[in-house]
């Protein structure tokens, strides 16, 4: 049975994400990117669109879910609308928002960016939604109910199988891993948007994905969609069942998602043979 809170989050965030996505599409290519301080331009690129889209999302969420704790990507004034104390282990509902995931892609004119958000309670994901504005697609999942995509005939349930025959890897993946994955699976491709690669087994864009850059709540949004579609998710070599990465000791290590357990084991074996977590980071 779907909880009322989970359903309300999906309904509210769907509207917010579609509206924010429309803003992002309209402004793409029209605003000069700024630069956040940090070691990686890929991870820290920022445009004013992040700020505008986040405000759109938070105003709508405050109308429908005013009492949730908010973990939003950007420090906008709208954050003050929500309670400010966050305890990851608390039973109070927590919403995590990424207004433009794949900002570097967005600033370069790519279609691979997304608006995404998730609802957590009691230290676990309860619901999550990803909207890809250019493709005009919405994917969402509720714990125990499955993963779905919106369509003209209504929601269609998704299964983690039959995806494109390739494996995604993120920008921090060591060159030794990249070469081993390409040799073993024939098609291994760099992906600079966690919404794309983490949800790939659910959306059918790839059979699986590997991340060497750790897993935070935002990346976990896509992983939760894949999990509810029946995919295998491993963080630090352990099975993941929707736990808040902020509460996990091993969320900073190897993360992967695969259409099934057999592929997950094969990915781990391939990485182990390429040096595992001790592989050189030269060539990142």
Structure commentary:
The chain is of the alpha+beta class. The protein folds into 2 domains: 4-157, Fructose-1,6-Bisphosphatase, Chain A, domain 1 (2-Layer Sandwich), CATH 3.30.540.10; 167-278, D-Maltodextrin-Binding Protein, domain 2. The chain contains 9 helices and 15 strands. The protein has helices spanning 4-27, 41-44, 48-64, 103-107, 175-185, 194-198, 200-203, 217-228, 261-273; strands spanning 34-35, 45-46, 69-72, 94-101, 114-121, 124-132, 137-142, 146-149, 156-157, 167-169, 188-190, 208-211, 232-235, 238-239, 255-258. The strands form 3 sheets. It has a 7-stranded mixed beta sheet with strand order 3-4-5-6-7-8-9, with helices on both faces. The termini are far apart. Residues 39-45 and 280-284 have low confidence and may be disordered.
How is the secondary structure organized here?
Elements: H1 4-27, E1 34-35, H2 41-44, E2 45-46, H3 48-64, E3 69-72, E4 94-101, H4 103-107, E5 114-121, E6 124-132, E7 137-142, E8 146-149, E9 156-157, E10 167-169, H5 175-185, E11 188-190, H6 194-198, H7 200-203, E12 208-211, H8 217-228, E13 232-235, E14 238-239, E15 255-258, H9 261-273
Parallel strand pairs: 3-4, 10-11, 10-12
Antiparallel strand pairs: 1-2, 4-5, 5-6, 6-7, 7-8, 8-9, 12-15, 13-14, 13-15
């Amino acid at each position: 049975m779907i909880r009322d809170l989970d359903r309300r989050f999906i309904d509210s965030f769907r509207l917010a994400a579609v509206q924010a996505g429309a803003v992002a599409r309209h402004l793409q290519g029209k605003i000069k990117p700024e630069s956040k301080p940090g070691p990686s331009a890929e991870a820290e690129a920022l445009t004013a669109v992040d700020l505008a889209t986040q405000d759109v999302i938070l105003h709508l969420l405050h109308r429908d879910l005013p009492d949730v704790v908010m973990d939003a990507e950007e420090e906008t004034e709208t954050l003050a609308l929500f309670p400010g104390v966050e305890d990851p282990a608390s039973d109070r509902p927590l919403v995590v928002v990424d207004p433009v995931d794949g900002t570097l892609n967005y600033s370069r004119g790519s279609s691979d960016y997304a608006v995404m958000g998730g609802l957590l309670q009691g230290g676990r994901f309860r619901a999550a939604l990803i909207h890809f504005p250019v493709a005009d697609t919405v994917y969402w999942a509720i714990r125990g109910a499955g993963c779905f995509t919106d369509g003209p005939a209504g929601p269609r349930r998704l299964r983690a199988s039959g995806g494109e025959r390739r494996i995604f890897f993120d920008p921090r993946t060591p060159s030794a891993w990249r070469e081993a994955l390409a040799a073993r699976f024939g098609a291994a491709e760099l992906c600079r948007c966690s919404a794309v690669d983490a949800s790939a087994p659910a959306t059918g864009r790839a059979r699986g994905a590997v991340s060497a850059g750790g897993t935070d709540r935002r990346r976990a949004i896509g992983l939760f969609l894949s999990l509810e579609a029946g995919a295998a998710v491993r963080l630090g070599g352990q099975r993941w069942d929707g736990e808040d990465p902020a509460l996990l000791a091993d969320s900073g290590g190897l993360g992967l998602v695969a259409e099934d357990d057999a592929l997950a084991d094969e990915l781990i074996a391939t990485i182990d043979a390429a040096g595992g977590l001790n592989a050189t980071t030269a060539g990142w």
